[in-house]
């Protein structure tokens, strides 16, 4: 359809020319182009079969255009009469996008433009520094070729243009500006996130990746492999010649997820993200992640003050007054990261290949057998003691690492068939490393390595420091004359992750336990979490080892728990706790807590919610097993935060009225 025809039609409609803007015309064509099939489907059979644009629009389409473009029904109909041939002959929107890209590929470079329609400019054209007096448009610029990882078209060549202010020496980029070696990101999340010096990832792609991590535990390496596979399909191939690799790397996926999370956090707080511009990319966001981790400890998860009909019960008393009961649950799972080999040391490793932190680094040169302080023999992790040398030799016999880890794996599978700890142990076996302590038995000079089960996660009483007298020998000796040795040949790992969960499935807090799931540590976690300003102390603390926890509270006269009920969860009390344990039956039997039961005798709260959450949480064991503390904490907290959003949306759909406590 030529322009003369359009002008002729517009001349006969002076009222339409006065009523609509060019923006509305372009919007009308864009929207109706996407609705061609809908428009045609509603027409009488002869009109649909003709292949010509129908004379009128269906009422539903008119109503939509009226709302979307602020057009009157009469103007919408007149627009259709004027532009219907343009709409009917236009290519499908997705075809149009590819046609535009093809035009840039073929004609862009010879014309001095990019081979892609995508060019990344700063959001501003003048300097925005408050102290700078230069308010003229910035003309000093630098352009460089980059790669844009898109959802629809795969990796595309693009250009990034940087503007520079000569007066205040500020360099403006698409995502941030640079001054004095520091980046300050703009508020909000951009359409494309810069994840490397020459790499940009579309926000939609980043959200897809992080969604897959939350819902399906997909690793960064698998996300990169999947994207590269899809980008290699014929429909996404292009003839662009870029000087940079168009293959996505695992590190770029991780940087995308970290930057997206940091930008969303900064936007939520209305405070710009700041990072160093110099230095290695792998260290660029460590300080920002550390600050977010510290805020998470001081302020808690956004859902920390959550309550809903599933986790808080409001009920009537016989005297006509009302009471409320809000519950919190706790449980742990044996997953973790490398940590210092010195027991309970919380100083981070400088490198995840090290066995000891910088403070205890000298222990690398001491015998790996626990309790032996002799220097190591050359080329060995043990001292010259023949028994210790034999222990190390046995560890490295072909198949011994696999045999030891297979024994741990059988224990895990027996205890928890859906646990991802099994995945972690298999990975360790493939790598040929045995992290954690390994036990040996010595008898008459003969040494035998013992199969050591994977550590479980159950609350225990922590023995006092003087519970055991000093041992004259680093090995323990049984009545039968056998000596038991323990050695730490490789890295120690943190013991378990402990979580606090509402009965509705909302996760309130997470903590890393270094030595064991000691009930004293669990109690400390509960107290610290609900001592954060704006929180409300729970009325019920449901925990599978509450009989031990309550003994700890009583022994230490911990008054913080005076008004907190401490029952064991229903499942563990029925199956794991002895009827003969009078203390447990009197104080921790959930049947003793009337507020946990409905009038018809059913349990009001889902006391197994913590274990159910751990089925999801344990899926990250294999992903985080090699992370250092900053990234480990940041990643797990981010996964919890995003899962909580999903849980909250589900509760809203089910009419459970999720809300936040106001103090």
Automatic annotation (TrEMBL):
<dbReference type="Pfam" id="PF18721">
    <property type="entry name" value="CxC6"/>
</dbReference>
<protein>
    <recommendedName>
        <fullName>CxC5 like cysteine cluster associated with KDZ domain-containing protein</fullName>
    </recommendedName>
</protein>
<feature type="domain" description="CxC5 like cysteine cluster associated with KDZ">
    <location>
        <begin position="118"/>
        <end position="228"/>
    </location>
</feature>
<dbReference type="Pfam" id="PF18718">
    <property type="entry name" value="CxC5"/>
</dbReference>
<feature type="domain" description="CxC6 like cysteine cluster associated with KDZ">
    <location>
        <begin position="330"/>
        <end position="393"/>
    </location>
</feature>
<dbReference type="InterPro" id="IPR040898">
    <property type="entry name" value="CxC6"/>
</dbReference>
<dbReference type="InterPro" id="IPR041539">
    <property type="entry name" value="CxC5"/>
</dbReference>
């Amino acid at each position: 359809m030529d322009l003369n025809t359009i002008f002729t039609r517009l001349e006969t409609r002076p009222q339409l020319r006065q009523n609509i803007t060019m923006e509305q015309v372009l919007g009308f064509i864009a929207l109706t182009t996407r609705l061609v099939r809908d428009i045609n489907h509603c027409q009488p059979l002869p009109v649909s079969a003709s292949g010509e644009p129908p004379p009128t629009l269906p009422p539903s389409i008119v109503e939509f255009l009226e709302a979307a473009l602020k057009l009157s029904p009469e103007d919408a109909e007149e627009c259709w009469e004027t532009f219907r041939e343009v709409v009917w002959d236009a290519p499908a929107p997705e075809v149009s996008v590819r046609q535009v890209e093809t035009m840039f590929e073929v004609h862009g470079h010879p014309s001095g433009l990019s081979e892609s329609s995508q060019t990344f400019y700063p959001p501003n054209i003048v300097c925005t520094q408050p102290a700078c007096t230069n308010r003229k448009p910035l003309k000093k610029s630098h352009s460089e070729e980059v790669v844009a990882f898109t959802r629809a078209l795969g990796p595309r060549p693009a250009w990034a243009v940087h503007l520079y202010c000569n007066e205040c020496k500020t360099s403006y980029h698409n995502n941030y500006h640079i001054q004095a070696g520091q980046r300050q990101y703009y508020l909000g999340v951009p359409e494309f996130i810069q994840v490397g010096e020459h790499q940009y990832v579309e926000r939609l792609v980043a959200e897809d990746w992080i969604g897959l991590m939350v819902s399906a535990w997909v690793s960064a390496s698998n996300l990169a492999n999947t994207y590269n596979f899809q980008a290699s399909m014929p429909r996404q191939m292009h003839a662009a010649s870029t000087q940079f690799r168009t293959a996505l790397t695992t590190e770029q996926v991780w940087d995308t997820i970290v930057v997206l999370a940091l930008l969303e956090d900064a936007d939520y707080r209305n405070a710009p993200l700041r990072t160093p511009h110099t230095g290695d990319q792998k260290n660029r966001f460590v300080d920002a992640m550390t600050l977010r981790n510290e805020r998470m400890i001081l302020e808690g998860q956004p859902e920390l003050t959550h309550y809903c009909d599933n986790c808080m019960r409001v009920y009537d008393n016989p005297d006509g007054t009302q009471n409320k009961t809000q519950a919190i649950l706790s449980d742990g799972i044996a997953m973790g990261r490398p940590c210092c080999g010195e027991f309970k040391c919380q100083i981070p490793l400088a490198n995840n290949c090290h066995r000891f932190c910088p403070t205890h680094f000298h222990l690398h040169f001491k015998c790996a057998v626990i309790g032996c302080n002799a220097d190591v023999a050359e080329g060995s992790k043990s001292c010259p003691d023949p028994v210790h040398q034999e222990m190390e030799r046995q560890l490295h016999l072909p198949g011994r690492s696999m045999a030891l880890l297979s024994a741990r794996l059988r224990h895990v599978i027996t205890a928890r068939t859906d646990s991802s700890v099994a995945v972690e142990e298999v990975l360790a076996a493939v790598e040929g490393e045995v992290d954690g302590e390994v036990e040996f038995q010595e008898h008459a000079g003969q040494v035998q390595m013992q199969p050591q089960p994977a550590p479980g996660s159950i609350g225990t009483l922590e023995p006092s420091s003087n519970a055991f007298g000093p041992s004259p020998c680093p090995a323990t000796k049984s009545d039968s004359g056998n000596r038991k040795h323990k050695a730490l040949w490789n890295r120690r790992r943190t013991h378990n992750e402990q979580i606090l969960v509402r009965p509705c499935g909302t996760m309130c807090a997470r903590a890393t336990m270094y030595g064991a799931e000691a009930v004293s540590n669990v109690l400390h976690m509960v107290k610290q979490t609900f001592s954060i300003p704006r929180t409300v102390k729970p009325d019920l603390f449901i925990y599978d080892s509450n009989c031990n926890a309550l003994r700890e509270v009583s022994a230490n006269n911990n008054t913080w728990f005076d008004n907190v009920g401490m029952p064991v969860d229903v499942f563990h009390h029925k199956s794991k706790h002895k009827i003969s344990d009078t203390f447990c039956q009197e104080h921790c039997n959930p049947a003793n807590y009337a507020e946990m039961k409905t009038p018809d005798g059913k349990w009001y709260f889902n006391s197994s919610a913590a274990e159910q959450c751990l089925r999801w949480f344990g899926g990250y064991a294999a992903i985080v097993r090699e992370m250092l503390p900053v990234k480990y904490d940041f990643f797990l907290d981010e996964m919890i935060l995003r899962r909580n959003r999903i849980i909250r949306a589900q509760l809203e759909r089910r009419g459970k009225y999720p809300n936040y406590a106001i103090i």
